[in-house]
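Exercise 3.2. Students should predict the tertiary structure of the chain below and write it as structure tokens, then compare their answer with the key that follows.

Predict this chain's 3D structure.
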Amino acid sequence: MDHLLLLAHRLSRFGAWVAGALIIGAAVLIGVDIVMRKFFSTSVGGASELSGYVLAISASWGFALTLLDRAHIRIDSLYVVLPLRLRALMDILGLVVLLAFVGFLSWQCSLVFLQTYELGSRALTPIATPLVYPQALWLLGMVYFLIVIGLLLLRAVLALLGGDLQTVQRIAGSRSATQEVEEELRDTRLRMDTGGNEA
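Answer key:
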């Protein structure tokens, strides 16, 4: 099971890099469009449309890495004072609720995609993008996120049944302030070591 989570983490990191590259590309396209409008009274065309697709696709593919890295925002004022077993149960409950919510979202995304596919819908813009392509990438990101949640939930339940509350905390729990500081220090050391080796 852990090897599947490791594989999911690698795939999620790759997806996040691609999503980041798409966002940078969209920002460059918008910048070029602004300059062309200002100085040449013309437009690239479709910059805002394409950036909207990029935002939706990038978000759907970024959700999984955020969950795997436990980088999402959680309000844990009460959570941190609870006993470890109760925290583990709450972490699993949180994953169950997230699975249900993302399952519903993915279902709705699939209905939108199927309708778009059946109708052959195109964007009502000058470039008339066939909507099936950006919607397919968006839907795949949501389904992938759903699979990752399912893997995490299964691993957390197995750990709980085995009495391994630390594993539940490690994969599904909220990061403590100490863990966040340690991670930042580790990342800083890594950057300094990498920078020093390149010099």
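Discussion points: Residues 158 and 164 are 9 Å apart (CA to CA). The chain has a mean pLDDT of 89.
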